[in-house]
Structures are given as C-alpha cells and as structure tokens.
Amino acid sequence: MRRRRTTAQEEDTEITPLLREDSQDKRGEFRTANAEPCEELPYSARLSAEPRQEFRFILLGGNECAKHDARNIILRKNEAQQRIHSRVCEMKEGWVNGRLVSVVNSPSFWMVHLASYFFFNRRLETIKNELQSGISMVFPGPHAFLLVVEAGRDTNKERYLLKAIKSEFGKEAIDYTIVLFISDSQPNYSQISRKSIVKKCGGRYHVLLRNNERSVEELFEEVVEMANKNRCKFFVPSPYEQFMKINFESWEKKKQMEFFKGIEKKLREELNNSKLRERDLQKELETSRENERKLREEQDDSRLRERDLQKELKTFKEERDHFKRRESELQKELETSRENERKLREKQDDSYVRLRELQKELDVLRIRKPEESSMMDDVEDGGAGIENEEQTSGATPVRRGSKEIILPDLSENLRNV
Questions:
Q1: Closest Cα partner for 128 from 239, 35, 19?
Q2: Beta carbons of 221 and 208 less than 8 angstroms apart
Q3: Which site in 174, 186, 202, 406 is 20 to 30 Å from 359, CA atoms measured?
Q4: What are the φ and ψ backbone dihedral angles of 104, each rounded to 5 degrees?
Q5: CA atoms of 141 and 175, how far apart (whole Å)
Q6: Residues facing residue 298 across a β-bridge
Q7: Using an 8 Å Cβ cutoff, are 97 and 27 in contact?
C-alpha cells in the first residue's frame, strides 16, 4: 500500500495543472445543444497541445437521451441522437478550452438487465468485458465515471449499475464515480444531496446545465478535486494495476517523445518561416530605404524648384505692380490728353466759326471794292472834302500816282477776329 501511494504521488501531475491552466485560459466558449459543433482535430493537430492537458470520461446510465446531451454539452457539439442505440461502447473526443477531452458512452441496456437478481448475475461478466473495452478506449484509464441522470427523472435503478461496477472492479471504481444531473435550470440541491445514489458515490454529484458555460468548467474542477483525494490520478482496474505500473511510464515517455517531436518539427517550420519572413522583410526594408532616399532627393529638388518659383512669382508680382502703376499713369495721361483734345476741338470749332465770319467779311469787302474805286474818282474831284472826311473818320490815305486814296480802316475788324 505504501508503494502504491508513492507511485500515485509521483504520477499525480496530470490533472492538477489543468485547473490552473483553465483559470488562465477562458477563451473557449460554451455552446448549448443549438450551437455549432466543434471540429474533432486530427492527431497531428493534437501534438500542438500539452499531452497532459486532457480529460477522459466514461458515461454510465440508462437514459440514452440524457447521456447524449451530456456528451454534447461537455464536448460542445451538436450531434443528432441516433435512433438505433449502440450495444457497444463508443468514444467521441474534442477540444475544450485547450484540453483534449475524450468521452466514452456505455450502452443504456446495462441498467435494464441489472434490474433483477437473475439478470444481474448473468450480465455481470458481459458488462465487465464491455466496460473493460470502454476503459481501453481511454488508455491509460478514465479520470472519472459519470453516472448521468436527468434531473427529476431518476428511476433509482442506477444503484444496480453502481452495484455491478463495485462488484466487478471494487470499491475503488466507486471512488472515481460522480453522479451527473442534466438540467435546464437550477434544481433543488437539498433533495439531490439526499438521493441514495449520491450517498453511494460518497456525496459526489454535479449539476450540468444546458445553458451555462461555468457548469462545464466546474465539472472539470470537481474531477480534479476528486483525483487529488484518490491514490491515483485516474482509475486503473486492479488486475491491470501492476501491468500499468510497468508499462505506463514507457507509454507516457513514448507519448511525450511524440509530442516533443511534433513540437520540434513545428518549431523548425516556424524557424524556417521566420527566416523567410526575415529575408523578405530585409528586402522590403532595403526597398523602403531606397524609396525613402529617392523621395528625399525629390523633396529637395521640389524645395529648390519651389524657391525658384517663389522668386519668379515675386518678380512677376513686382512687374505686375509696376505695370499697374504705369497703366494708371497712362490712364491719367490719356484722360488729360482727351480733355486737351476736347478743348482743342472746341477752339478749332470756334476758329472755324470765326473763319467763316471773316470769309463773309472778306466777301463783303470784295463786293465793296468796285464801289471804292468809284469813290476814289470822286475823291480826286473833291480833295478838300475828302481830307476833312479823313480827319473825321481816321481813314488812312493811299497815294495812287499823284493822288491819295483813303481806304477804310479794317484793323478793328481784324482785331475782333
């Protein structure tokens, strides 16, 4: 017994880290029966997870619908229930919050055949063989037997199943058994704790809610707590206990070697990919630096061009201002010239008017010239009278030959012109 406890302490390293890992990783999302089913990962994908991060369960009970719901809730699947119930153990597995969870569903007819003493004795050997087959599916052993019961619909026949397991595998098998109640809402826990099947399992039970993520995590925590109280981290049938002591270590080392080889392969691939990415990034960096250099040169050229354009623009502005000032001056000169032209035209018009008047006066004088000639003859005859007239009129005498002719004074008329 002391050797067994020592072995259990040495091996009790598998389940305890799971609770700590679960508290650190809450990225997994619980799904109800109406949710999308999660994929079962291939073996190569399982190598990416820690090999010790796993749970192995065997479902017991006579309610096939309740067991089907329990498996779907634990594995976060949405698989339809088969119409024809299997008469052998079936295993399903999937990833739940980074852990590989394996669930073996045992046949429901076991509990029916165990309900009477006659069938109980006849079916014990068959159940033992079939249950050992189910245990072998979750090698090296299940972490827990889950006796599934629909809350409020237990038939009390589950005690026959517990009796058969205890009879064939000993009391230690009951120490790894938890009564799992399936419910849509919170049940009456005080009534559940008083049920006989719960008492036979040492008071261990768990309520798995269909719409509550936390209930699945709490189930894992209770399994860890139960394993810590037992002498081994998972159940091993007594006939195989010595065999497991000899072979489990080699199996575990082999599994770890496979895991580490997978990790090494993955790390090498990541290293190669990292080198390729580094080379690509180096090329991109060089290209980026070259583009940056060209852009800087273009920017410098652009600045020089901008400075030249600023100078040209300044010159153009100065010339424009000069032209505007010159235009303003010319405009003023033009207005002055137009004003002078207007005044000259007015003077010219006045001159034309005065010239016409003078022309008229000249025409009048030309008409009067013959008359003056006749007057000169009269003057010769009356010189004395003319002299007197000259003195009175101020006319200028003109000498023609030996005679003087007095012409009318036109100086006044010319002055007026």
A1: 239
A2: no
A3: 406
A4: -105, 125
A5: 14
A6: none
A7: yes
Q: For residue 326, what are the contacts with CB-CB under 8 A and spacing of at least 6?
A: none
Residue 186 CB neighbours (<10 A)? 11
Count CB-CB contacts under 10 A for residue 398.
11
> What is the Cα 251 distance to its own chain's centre?
47
Ordered strands of the 99-105 beta sheet:
90-96, 99-105, 54-60, 144-150, 177-183, 205-209
Residue owning tokens 């990962």: 41
Q: Is 138 in contact with 104 (CB distance < 8 Å)?
A: yes
Longest dimension (CA), the chain: 204
Segment (H or E) for 375: helix 241-381
d(CA 140, CA 252): 9
CA atoms within 13 A on the CB side of 191: 8
How far is residue 45's CA from residue 42's CA, in Å, rounded to a whole number?
5
Rounded to whole angstroms, the Cα distance separating 222 from 178 reads 9
| Domains of the chain, first to last | 2-236 (3.40.50.300)
SS3 label, residue 96: strand
- Can you tell me the distance from the alpha carbon of 335 to that of 329, in angstroms, rounded to the nearest whole number? 10
Q: Are 417 and 359 in contact (CB under 8 A)?
A: no
Query: How many Å apart are CA 35 and CA 68, to the nearest integer?
Result: 15
Q: CA–CA separation, 339 vs 348, rounded Å? A: 14
Q: 0.90 exceeded by the pTM?
A: no
CA neighbours within 13 Å on the CB side: how many for 124? 15
Cα–Cα distance list, 222 to 75, 180, 202, 207, 225 (Å) = 17, 11, 13, 11, 5
First to last CA, the chain: 163
Per-residue pLDDT of the chain (417 residues; tens, 9 = 90+): 334 444 434 434 333 333 333 333 333 333 333 333 333 333 333 333 344 468 999 998 888 888 888 898 998 888 777 666 667 888 998 888 888 899 998 887 766 666 555 555 666 766 777 778 888 888 888 999 999 988 877 767 788 888 888 887 888 888 999 999 988 888 777 777 788 888 888 889 999 888 877 888 899 999 999 988 887 788 877 666 655 655 666 666 777 788 788 888 989 999 999 999 999 999 999 999 999 999 999 999 999 999 999 999 999 999 999 999 999 999 999 999 999 999 999 999 998 999 999 898 888 888 877 777 777 766 666 665 555 555 555 555 545 454 455 555 545 554 554
